[in-house]
Structures are given as C-alpha cells and as structure tokens.
Specification:
The protein is α+β, with helices and mostly antiparallel strands and 319 residues long. Helix content is 24%, strand content 28%. The N terminus is likely disordered.
Length: 319
C-alpha cells in the first residue's frame, strides 16, 4: 500500500510538472507570435519606433525635452486612445476639457499594463504612440466586438503630469462640491475626514442610535458621481450587515454610520481614501465589472481610482 502511495504521488508530480511546462510553452508561443506580428506591422508601415526589453515599441509624437521623468508611485494623469492593430477603436479619451484619468504608477496600477511600463520612457507633457503585443494588453480577455481575444494594440497616450495626494484631495473635494451644486442638493455637511453626509429621511424616534460594536443591517447602492447607474446595489430582501467600528469595514462606514437609527436614509459623498483606497485604473471602464466577475481583478477594485463615489443607504435595524 505504501509503495502504491509513492507511485501515485510520483505520477501526480509528473503530471503537475507537465501542466506547468505546457502553460510555459503556450505563453512562449503567444509571446513569439505577437512579437512577430508587431515587428511585421512596424516594418510594413515604415514606422520609426523604439523597441523595449519588455516587448512593446514606442515613438514619441510630442516631445518635451525639459519635462520631468515620472517616479515610481507617482499618481499620473493621462489622456489616451486605444485601438486594435487593425484600427478598430476600443476607447478614445482625448478631450482635454475633461479631467485626465489617473493611475498609480506601480506594478498592477493600470490595465492595459503597457501604459504603466511606458511611463518609464515618458516625460511630463509627452505623447507616446505604443505598439503593444496582446500579452501587455488585455491578453485572452475579450468583450464582444469591442475587444477581441489576444488583441494586439496601438495606444496613443499623453502623460499630462504627476499629482500629489494633496492635489487629488483637492480635485475630489471640488468634484463633490460640483456634484452638489449641479444637482441642487441641500443638507450635506462635510466631516473632518472629507466625507459629505446628509440624512434624506429621519430614523424612527425612540429607536437605538448606532455605536461601536452594534450590528447594523441596511440596504444600499453606490456608484461614481458621473453616472446614474450604480456600480453595486444590494438585494433589498437580504440586507447587508456590519458591526460598527471593525477595522475591516470601509472607513467611511465606520465614520458615517455612527448615530444612525432604524428607517433612516443617508447619503455619503466619499473620497477614495475613505472608500476603496487606491484601486486599479481600467481602460475602458466598461470592462471593469467584467474583469471582476471573471475574477481577473479583485472586487475591491469596483470603483475608479482617485475619484469620489456616492453611497446611499436605508437602515433596516440597529442591534
């Protein structure tokens, strides 16, 4: 029996090693295939581009010799246009009357990740054209006709500037104030933590006010300020529950839920540092939920980075 166990273990080990080798071999083939496709595209179209060790090519469309280099962990603002190598548009965000999209310059800070890699060769104010193999883009991910699987890409990126956390706090606060003004909202008060809070329906008189350690059950939804469609809505038949004060709660819940009562309705405008923190920037944003649903990125990345959210809740009970 003992010998049989050793024999079975040996077979499983060989099979596991074989699977790993097969995956490595598949990846090698994809890299070799896409590298050749990009190389042929550049050659056929007589493009003067610089090859990088990572695998993408780039050329500088707008040069800024006196611009600063970006540093690791900068918060970088960009405008961009993403197309397939065949010229099909995935998304264009080049309108500079709008705020730039922000991402955290670090491994895993943005999808497609080539934009993160390319920041190492860009200076503030420069525009780069990137020629991108699929393994540095969306890889095997596909979304209808918009993004085919294993799509090689051409991306135009303007690296606008680096923002400090203080810059971001000011930008987010201005966005929240503008949201209140544009929608003629009243009753919001700003907490010392930068959260805007208002009650839209008072709680039931004489019921318990929530304090740390209490179990609060509530239904909710939340979304980005520029969209009327919530990112997430809870099931009204199965209220969410949390114990107030736990360190695992989102910060704004511990701060804003103190003192709530049964039947109270509340709204929060929440800056990123009190909400989901620094999340992954996903371009185009329309694929964010799909990536989460397929477990390709963590569900904590549901909101865009460095932007406030609006959170609405109705308290079911406090115990």
């Amino acid at each position: 029996m003992k010998n049989r166990s050793y024999f079975l273990f040996a077979i499983l080990l060989v099979l596991a090693q074989s699977c790993v080798q097969s995956l490595d071999s598949d990846l090698d083939r994809i890299i070799e295939r896409d590298d050749q496709i990009i190389k042929n595209f550049i050659s056929t179209n007589n493009i003067q581009a610089t090859e990088t060790a990572v695998g993408f090519y780039y050329r500088k469309e707008v040069v800024n010799d006196v611009g600063n280099q970006f540093a690791n962990k900068d918060i970088i603002g960009i405008y961009y246009e993403i197309k397939t190598l065949e010229g099909n548009l995935i998304e264009s965000y080049l309108d500079e009357t709008k705020a730039p999209r922000l991402f955290y310059y670090n491994e895993g800070g943005i999808i497609p990740k080539v934009i993160n890699f390319a920041a190492s060769v860009a200076k503030v104010g420069e525009t780069l054209i990137l020629y991108v193999p699929s393994y540095l883009g969306y890889q095997e991910f596909a979304l209808g006709q918009t993004i085919p699987a294993n799509a090689n890409l051409v991306i135009r990126v303007k690296y606008v500037q680096a923002f400090t956390l203080d810059d971001v706090r000011q930008i987010e606060d201005e966005l929240m104030q503008q949201y209140i003004a544009d929608n003629n909202l009243t009753g919001f008060t700003k907490s010392t933590d930068g959260i805007y809070i208002r009650t839209t329906q008072e709680g039931s008189a004489g019921t318990k006010e929530a304090t740390n350690g209490d179990l609060i059950r509530f239904i909710y939804n939340f979304g980005q300020l520029d969209s009327t469609t919530p990112l997430v809505s809870s099931n009204p038949n199965t209220p969410f529950q949390m114990t107030l004060g736990l360190g695992t709660n989102l910060k704004f819940l511990n701060l804003g839920m103190r003192g709530v009562r049964k039947s109270q309705k509340i709204e929060f405008l929440v800056p990123h540092n009190q909400g989901f923190g620094i999340t992954i920037q996903v371009l185009p944003g329309a694929i964010r939920k799909e990536l989460i649903d397929k477990s390709l990125i963590n569900s904590n990345n549901i909101a865009r980075p460095f932007e406030p959210i609006i959170f609405k809740a109705e308290i079911v009970d406090v115990n």
